Amino acid sequence: MLPVLLLTALGALTATAIPTTTPVDAVSVLSARAVSPDQTCGNLKAGANKGYTCPGTAACCSSYGYCGTASDFCLTTAGCQTQFSNSSSACHAPKSGVDVTIDGTCGSTGVGKLGYRCAANGTFSACCSSS
Question: Model's pTM, two decimal places?
Answer without folding.
Answer: 0.63
